[in-house]
Write a structure and sequence with these properties.
alpha+beta, 3-stranded antiparallel sheet, 348 residues, 6-stranded antiparallel sheet, 38% helix, Phosphorylase Kinase, domain 1, Transferase(Phosphotransferase), domain 1
């Protein structure tokens, strides 16, 4: 008997996970809130659709997602607890995040306040940067895969097409382009292997959407979207939201550069730049952050040295220097008198 594609409430999986509610569905899986009756905690269940159970490729991809997420323990990444394949159903058991996803938040609010958008992106960069340091590229970053908990914490999920850096070949070409066309990078659109900079580009698209309420490139045709990512310049975020600081627009446009080498190298680097922007853009000061020139190391904003610090005279240092001069000068007569006591003194 074929298993149902959707589970009824109160269904128990693997003898311990009791389904409480349905949270949503994607192209490959249904997502549920469940109660772990053994540990007495709520969990998320991601269940492979019944129609894919007989497809080895989809089962392998589902397993790969679990393996990718299994070793990523970070406050900004959804934690994976278990993977179950009992022959009838295949599902993942993961941390339950009470809140919403970023896409739902954007549909509800439209444009996010600058500070909220930047702080959420800094958190997201922390999680993606951790994955990068672990040798993993997400490859499908988008607002749907960024969960926002009730206390405002961003958590990344859905590593379904993540790639290990160690498996990528420079000459690799892909006939099938994986990822979401609205958010994937120019190199992914061209079928080239992704890199950490590819995830950075996707984060740039997400940040653009949070700050302007729309995507930089829009089309119903996936091929046209690919062409736009490959060759069309993104619109100026400030033309869509004139309240944006000019320095923040520069950051967004740099992240959306067509060439990976022109972007920030990793999510960690982007996160540091944005964190510096938040500090510099505090309401009581609101100075304009300065981005270091050059593509290689624009790591953070810097503040000018206060004028008072430049003009202050260090009287203690002057006094110590004068004392040292007098001490050394007083030794000279003493040396001369001792030297003259000896016949071999060169001054005699």
């Amino acid at each position: 008997m074929e298993p149902r594609d959707e589970l009824a409430l109160q269904t128990t999986l693997a003898g311990r996970y009791q389904i409480l509610s349905r949270l949503g569905a994607g192209g490959m899986a249904h997502v549920y809130r469940a109660q772990d009756t053994h540990l007495q905690r709520q969990v998320g269940i991601k269940l492979l659709r019944a129609g894919y159970m007989g497809d080895p490729a989809f089962r392998q991809r589902f397993l790969q997602e679990a393996r990718s997420a299994a070793n990523l323990i970070h406050p900004n990444i959804v934690t994976l607890y278990d993977f179950v394949d009992d022959g009838q159903r295949v599902f993942m058991v993961m941390e339950y995040v009470e809140g919403t996803d970023l896409k739902t938040l954007l549909r509800r609010q439209g444009v996010l306040p600058v500070r909220e958008a930047v702080e959420l992106m800094v958190q997201t960069c922390a999680g993606v940067g951790y994955a990068h340091r672990a040798g993993l590229i997400h490859c499908d970053l988008k607002p749907h895969n960024i969960l926002i908990s009730g206390d405002g914490r961003a958590k990344i999920t859905d590593f379904g097409i993540a790639r290990a850096l160690s498996t990528l070949q420079r000459e690799e070409r892909q006939d099938v382009v994986w990822g979401s066309p609205q958010y994937f990078s120019p190199e992914q659109a061209a079928g080239s292997p992704p890199s950490p900079a590819s995830d950075v580009y996707a984060l740039g698209v997400v940040l653009f959407e949070m700050l302007t309420g729309r995507l930089p490139f829009e089309s119903e045709d996936p091929d046209e979207l690919s062409r736009l990512h490959l060759s069309a310049p993104p619109p100026s975020p400030r033309t869509l939201n004139p309240t944006l600081p000019a320095a923040l627009e520069q950051i967004v446009l740099k992240v959306l550069a067509k060439e990976p080498s022109a972007r920030y190298r990793s999510a960690d680097q982007l996160g540091r730049v944005l964190a510096g922007f938040v500090v510099e853009a505090a309401p009581e000061a609101t100075p304009t952050p300065r981005i270091h020139a050059g593509a290689a190391s624009p790591d953070r904003a810097t503040a000018p040295i206060p004028a008072a610090a430049e003009d202050k005279v260090d009287w203690l240092a002057i006094a110590l220097g004068l004392a040292a001069f007098l001490a050394v000068g007083g030794l000279v007569p003493l040396w001369l008198s001792v030297c003259l006591l000896y016949p071999s003194c060169p001054l005699r």
